[in-house]
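Hey, I was hoping to borrow your eyes for a little while. I've dropped the whole record in just underneath, so have a look:

——
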Amino acid sequence: MSANGQTLPPLIGALLREPWQTVRDHMLDGLHTHGFADLTSAHLNVLQHPGPDAVRPTELAARTRMTRQALNYLLGQMEQLGYVERRSDSGDGARRVYLTERGHRAMATIRELVKEIEDRWARDLGADEFARLRELLTDLNAIAARS
């Protein structure tokens, strides 16, 4: 609300928050429905695109914007649940995170679930408008990555 009592229009962060939360909620609900009931909202951070397969934990921590300690805690949980494993790479000896078969199935399920949301939004907005939104968000991501 502004100083004169009028409601100001939402800024970009607020406009992105509701769609993002809708996607996360749909992913988590769908994962639970499809047999991945042991995953939590925090685990979705590790499983975000492009996924944690064959990446060093330090790189994954930077990508997910987590501390190494927080990421290692989640990776430990996800190892116990059978979604990932950490092992040394034979090429350079560095430890890397790898998806297990269960992890790959969860990632495929996430893609299907997000596609459901995208299809619904494309119907609601119209295919051309949704394609334009995707294009604009792709451009905005590139701009934000440079900042």
Summary: The mean pLDDT is 94. The two ends are 29 Å apart (CA to CA). The domain at 21-146 is CATH 1.10.10.10 (Arc Repressor Mutant, subunit A). The first helix runs from residue 12 to 33.
